[in-house]
Amino acid sequence: MIKIRKGLTAAIILLLCSVFFGCVNHPDDVPIFFGGGDDEIDTDILTNPGMKNPLTGVWKTGNKYWRFRSNGTGGKASTEKGPFPDSFSFFVYRKSQFYESSSNKQQSLVILDNSGNVTRYLLDLSMIEDGQAILTMPSGGGDQITLERVSGVPCALGLKNSLIGEYTATWYAANGTQSNGTWSIAYYADGTAKFYHLTAGHQFQNSYLIRGDKLVIYGNMRFGGLNATITPIVAAISKQGDGTLKILETSGISYVYTKTAAATWKSE
Predict the structure, then answer these.
(1) Contact between residue 240 and residue 255 where contact means Cβ atoms under 8 Å apart
(2) How many CB atoms lie within 10 A of CB 205?
(3) How do residues 85-111 score in pLDDT, each as one tens digit?
(4) Where along the chain do its domains lie?
(5) Which of 31, 204, 241, 242 is 20 to 30 A from 68 via CA?
(6) Which tens digit of pLDDT belongs to each residue from 251-268?
(7) CATH topology of domain 165-260
């Protein structure tokens, strides 16, 4: 009897899944880091179970083709074979039954392009099994974009960035005053992020992306509670001299992240 080590077995399974189901990055896929490529990456990749991204693959709209890679980047081309440049990063926000949810946070596709522009589309997946997804602007302006799948299947994202892991965080108002309470925050390789405000007792899920030193977050219960209407939050990430990370949002609100092996979480 031939014995195969667990690690080798897992590698073979991953390879076969990639071949038969298409959940593999193209050779032109480029990992995204903040602060340069010498940042340390947490190799103990954290992943939320079952969080597949519905848009991975190649889609056609009109005479254009959009490609969403499983490393969280994408590009547009004039043919289905490309080449597809690395021109944006993206995530899909979908409500999760695992966390407290907010009724107003809409299923969305969020894109950050090379010019620093953040665009959020409402994402209609009611026809996804027929290979179709529909994008509209939240304001109701602009043309509806109908995407038709050309190739690929939904896959869990496999992000590689220096933010993946668990943190304790303090936060500060725009005037620099430290606000009440401590946060536990975790960023996962599938593009989701878990937040727990220890004082208020709220635990919830967001989605995120990183491109360069920019962090974009959208999801549940961000400042204003369950009924707040919010846009994606955009922040700059910078590494501090003491090893902590500063997250400075465009609103002026900031966080200081301290890496931890195991943050405190609310029992689920």
Answers:
(1) no
(2) 25
(3) 999 999 998 765 444 444 445 788 999
(4) 57-151, 165-260
(5) 204
(6) 899 999 999 999 999 886
(7) Lipocalin (2.40.128)
